[in-house]
Structure formats: structure tokens, C-alpha cells
């Protein structure tokens, strides 16, 4: 079975380098750096940052190195927190739709694409991500155990969708599991749960939580890449949404919803959802409702449709592309809690542009606002998982007691944000949990 292959090879057959516990427990001092802190900007003097057991132990004015402690000379460069992308699909972002649907899909292909993509993401400086749906638990386990290199992952597990919803990826020859007893290919791959009615929604949520989901992803409205549902439709009844929220809250975590329209988002807010993904078609009334209820807006800046894109998808995307030009500045003006993500799905060639997509925010935000969004603000959203957060501790900030996820940048990104889009050249050192994964200082 393809599902068995996927679940097994990711964490059993991976033969990457494993890091010993001693490396995590060792003390490292990064000397001679300017420290950027989203709270108060750039340090006016050169400093020394001491890391021990994966935690930032101290930040002090530049001092003479202790020969008994491993020291890294930062050469006056800028130290920033690790980057965070709160809307990725680690598995399906690494594979094209043709590869996913091919009968020739093999263990080797999955191994090469998904494992390689995770490592490349970390080496682009993304030390933490929130996976917004798909088969993720084996990959996360392999990374956490040091069998694979990659970012910290906040997993959602399979998306939860109604029949004919955005997560219903059945092909025309696949009938309903409920009536004919056979789960679809996407369900077998743990890509989605097609769940209708309160009992099925409760079961789907609890299944994901059982396997370690840190939050739940519910499809609450139509999508641009799905075949059956127009963008304008509202998905799931209030009671079905409420069931998902209740099940998640019983585990101390939250539900995020895929939705574009006011009707879908207003229903989700009333049901107790804490985060809206996308939302490019929202009006001021709905945004005010989000602000009043302390709901996060986790959105993207999508690229224009391409000439070779399916005509149906081009047509469905029009109101979304048009809407985002109003959404970003309006959400900023209304001071919503805003998070940023990429949402690359079945287009693996886009992954290399992950950093460059950050620059698209310059249309509406200053460099300082953008750096804060992709570090401190995104980290705050990750911690909405509460006790279900897989990595307790502070992220997105450089201060004593915070987790040591750090990037040393050759230059000042507050002055030149394009440095962020050149990770291979400008990210001199990348550290996650106190471990150095890249160092080209010498």
C-alpha cells in the first residue's frame, strides 16, 4: 500500500546524519555580533550571545572568549531569530500533482523529494513552520529524532473537509466512502478526512490529536485549486464547526479554517475558531469581528495567474487576487493580529522562492514590520497551540531564556531586506535548538 510506504520510509529508512545529545548540551558563544530583537530593534553595540542546552543563556557586551567554550566569531554581522512560515505543506509542497497521482509513485521518490525539501527549507533559514495539512507526523518524528534535517514542525495532520469541500480530492471514479465503503486515495495518504456531520467531525479531529496534531485545520469555504467547490460556497454547518472547536479546545488547542468569504469566516468566528487562513475576500465588517474576537489572520500574497494555469483555476482565483490588494493594508490599518505564510502546494519549483515571497510584503509594510511578522508575530501564533505545542519555549526573539534558533546575516536586513532573499550567500550561520546546521564564516 502507498500509505504504508509513506508512513514507513520517512522515519525508518532515512539515513541522514544524527546529532548526538552532547552537541545539544554543549555551550557555544557567538561573539562580535549586532543582535536584532523584534521588540527593540538592533543593538547599538557588538555583543556576545551564549547558548547552552539549546537555550540562549546570556546576551552581554562583547567580551574576550573563554578558551574552554566553543566560540564563533560573528565578524560584526547581524544576528536575527530564525524565520517562521506558518502555512506550509511539507509533504505536498515537495511533490507535484502529477507525481502524487502517478501509479509510479515510489518510496525513493517520496524519500528524495520530501526529505530533501525539509533540509533545504532549514538551510533557507526557516527554523520553524506550521504544517497546514497533509501526512506529516512521520516526517516530524524523523526531524525531531535527528534522522532527518529540517525545521521544527507544528503539525495539523490531515485536513478535515465536508463532502464536496475544499479537501475532497476524489477523482471522478472515486465514490463516497460513506456509501460505498472505500476510502479515497487522498484519505489513504492521510491528506484529508472527508467528514460529514458532528460525529464524523469529532472523530476526525480526535484522530489527528491522537497522532500529535498541535492544531486542527478545517475547510470552511471554497477553494481555487479544488474541482468541486466554487470559491463563494460556505462549508460546514455551524454545529459541525462547533464540534471541531469543542474537540480541539478539550485538548487545549485551536482550530484554523481555510476560508475566503465573509459568510464562511463569520460562521467560523461564532463557532470559536481562532485563526483564519487566507481571507482575501473579507470585508471591513468581518475584519472588525475578527479583531473583537481576537482571531488571527494568517494570509499570503499570492502571485498572479500564469498563462499555462488551468482556465477554471484562473477564473476562480480572480476575486482572491483582486481582494488581497485591499486585505493587507486594511488588516494593518485595523491592527489585526496578522501572520504570514507561503502555502506552496503541488508546485515544488516554488519552494526556492520561499524567502523571496517575504519581499512582496514591502508594498504595505516597513522592513522592521516585516521582520517582526516573520519572527516574533508568527511565533506568537505558533504558541496558540498551548500545551499541544511540540516545542515549549520562546521563539521568534533573541533574549535570555529563548530557544536558540538563530541566523547570522551578512548585512543589516533592517536597511536592506533583500538580504533575506539570498540565504545561500547572505546567511552565514544557521542554528536551530543550539545546533549549527550551516557555518560559512571561515
From TrEMBL:
Biased composition (Basic and acidic residues): 167-177
Domain of life (superkingdom): Bacteria
CDD domains the UniProt entry points to: Met_dep_hydrolase_A (cd01299)
Region described as Disordered: spans on this chain: 154-177
Matching InterPro entries: Amidohydro-rel, Metal-dep_hydrolase_composite, Metal_Hydrolase, Metallo-dep_Hydrolase, OTAase-like
Location of the Amidohydrolase-related domain: 78-423
PANTHER family: ALPHA-D-RIBOSE 1-METHYLPHOSPHONATE 5-TRIPHOSPHATE DIPHOSPHATASE (PTHR43135)
Protein name per Swiss-Prot or TrEMBL: Amidohydrolase family protein
Source organism of this protein record: Belliella kenyensis
Amino acid at each position: 500500500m502507498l500509505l504504508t510506504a509513506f508512513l514507513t520510509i520517512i522515519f525508518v529508512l532515512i539515513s541522514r546524519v544524527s546529532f548526538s545529545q552532547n552537541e545539544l548540551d554543549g555551550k557555544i558563544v557567538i561573539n562580535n555580533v549586532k543582535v536584532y530583537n523584534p521588540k527593540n530593534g538592533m543593538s547599538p553595540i557588538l555583543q556576545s550571545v551564549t547558548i547552552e542546552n539549546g537555550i540562549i543563556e546570556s546576551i552581554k557586551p562583547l567580551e574576550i572568549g573563554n578558551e574552554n567554550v566553543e566560540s564563533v566569531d560573528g565578524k560584526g554581522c547581524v544576528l536575527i531569530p530564525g524565520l517562521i512560515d506558518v502555512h506550509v505543506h511539507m509533504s505536498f509542497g515537495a511533490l507535484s500533482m502529477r507525481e502524487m497521482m502517478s501509479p509510479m509513485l515510489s518510496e525513493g521518490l517520496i524519500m528524495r523529494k520530501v526529505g530533501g525539501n525539509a533540509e533545504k527549507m532549514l538551510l533557507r533559514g526557516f527554523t520553524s513552520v506550521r504544517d497546514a495539512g497533509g501526512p506529516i507526523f512521520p516526517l516530524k518524528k524523523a526531524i525531531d529524532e535527528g534522522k532527518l534535517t529540517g525545521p521544527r514542525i507544528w503539525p495539523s495532520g490531515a485536513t478535515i473537509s465536508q463532502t464536496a469541500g475544499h479537501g475532497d480530492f476524489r477523482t471522478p471514479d472515486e465514490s463516497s466512502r460513506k456509501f460505498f465503503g472505500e476510502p479515497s486515495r487522498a484519505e489513504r495518504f492521510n491528506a484529508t478526512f472527508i467528514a460529514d456531520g458532528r460525529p464524523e467531525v469529532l472523530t476526525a479531529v480526535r484522530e489527528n490529536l491522537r497522532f500529535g496534531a498541535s492544531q486542527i485545520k478545517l475547510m470552511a469555504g471554497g477553494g481555487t485549486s479544488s474541482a468541486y467547490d466554487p470559491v463563494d460556497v460556505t462549508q460546514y454547518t455551524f454545529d459541525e464547526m462547533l464540534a471541531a472547536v469543542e474537540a480541539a479546545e478539550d485538548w487545549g488547542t485551536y482550530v484554523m479554517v481555510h476560508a475566503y468569504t465573509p459568510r464562511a469566516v463569520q460562521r467560523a468566528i461564532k463557532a470559536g475558531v481562532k485563526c483564519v487562513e487566507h481571507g482575501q475576500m473579507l470585508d471591513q465588517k468581518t475584519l472588525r469581528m475578527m479583531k473583537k474576537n481576537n482571531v488571527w489572520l494568517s494570509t499570503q500574497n499570492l502571485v498572479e495567474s500564469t498563462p499555462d494555469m488551468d482556465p477554471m483555476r484562473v477564473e476562480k482565483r480572480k476575486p482572491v487576487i483582486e481582494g488581497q490588494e485591499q486585505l493587507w493594508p486594511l488588516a494593518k490599518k485595523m491592527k489585526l493580529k496578522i501572520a504570514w505564510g507561503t502555502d506552496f502546494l503541488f508546485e515544488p519549483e516554488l519552494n526556492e522562492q520561499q524567502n523571496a515571497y517575504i519581499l512582496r510584503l514591502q508594498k504595505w509594510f516597513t522592513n522592521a514590520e516585516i521582520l517582526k511578522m516573520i519572527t516574533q508575530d508568527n511565533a506568537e501564533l505558533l504558541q496558540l497551540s498551548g500545551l499541544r505545542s511540540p516545542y515549549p519555549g520562546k521563539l521568534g526573539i533573541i533574549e535570555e531564556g529563548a530557544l536558540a534558533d538563530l541566523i547570522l546575516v551578512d548585512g543589516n536586513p533592517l536597511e536592506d531586506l533583500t538580504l533575506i532573499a539570498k540565504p545561500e550567500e547572505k546567511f552565514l550561520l544557521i542554528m536551530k535548538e543550539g545546533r549549527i546546521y550551516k557555518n560559512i564564516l571561515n
